[in-house]
Amino acid sequence: MEDYPKDLAEFEARFSDEASCRAYVFQLRWPEGFRCPRCSHGQAWPVRGSWYECAACGHQSSVISGTVLAGTRKPLVQWFRAMWAVTSSKSGISAMGLQRVLGLGSYKTAWTWLQKLRRAMVRPGRDRLAGAVEVDETYVGGRQEGHEGRSLGRKSLVVIAAEEDGRKIGRIRMQRVPDASAASLQGFVAQAVAPGSVVHTDGWRGYASLAGKGYDHQPLAQGRLDIPGADEDLLPRVHRVVSLLKRWLLGTHHGAVSGPHLDYYLDEFTFRFNRRTSRSRGKLFYRLVQQAVAIGPAPYATLTRQVRGRGRHKG
What we know:
The protein is α/β, with parallel strands linked by helices. It has a domain at 132-246: Ribonuclease H-like superfamily/Ribonuclease H (Nucleotidyltransferase, domain 5, 2-Layer Sandwich). Helices cover 36% and strands 14% of the residues. The chain is built from ten helices and eight strands. The protein has helices spanning 8-14, 18-29, 76-88, 95-102, 107-119, 182-192, 236-253, 259-273, 281-292, 300-304, and strands at 44-47, 51-54, 60-62, 132-140, 156-165, 168-177, 198-200, 216-217. A hairpin with a 2-residue loop joins strand 5 (156-165) and strand 6 (168-177). Helix 3 packs across helix 9 and helix 4 (95-102) packs across helix 5 (107-119). It is globular and about 65 Å long.
């Protein structure tokens, strides 16, 4: 049974201390009772306050050990407030905004927390898109002089898939790819779209052999091959998603998202878009906490490894 606060007042009343936050994490991580992370034994006794020692193997763990929250020195109450701030805002929040809302003394802390939470926005084992799906690519960061067509230059190329739900948009998937080759584009389709689905694309040759990979590939027109997304009416759903993505990156993050970190911003946009019809902010909070305890740790060193030496973090 899904259990979550319905509004801000209920959230503040329920999660005002560490004990209530730990109990909620325990409930979401072990809904059928404690399971040792090492041996899966179901019995343990409390030690060192919030830690548990397995009755079978003696392994000690806390409710956040092995999760994306592992190693934090900040109270869970503050983490819960961060997750509520992230999910209660329809357009999201920047690191500077989170720093201000939580009263954090460090921009670095706010940036790190958001990066960790973005990693929790992809549900492990999530279903692939199905039915009829539009697929196309776009540049993020604008065009660069001297690079034509699907040539990347220093910009990020993002491929997007959007389910067709009548005239509406269903679920989406998106990913940064190194280039517009068949290997990159069809690799994305294989990960994002279930075999047997109808896949609509433009006439770009990178999609040409999808039919041989278990998809009903229906290119809608030859289109202009010099500019990705040139035929705005050809794939209206995916181009609508492109427009919303760029507006979100510019409005919430002022366009200051570096390439190596872009994947996780795409994950956040996807998380928000696929839950856009939810009337309950509390349910989004519930999903984020649930997924945060389902994935592994993300130490600061791994968050910055790709951009080390470039100066201040973006986003």
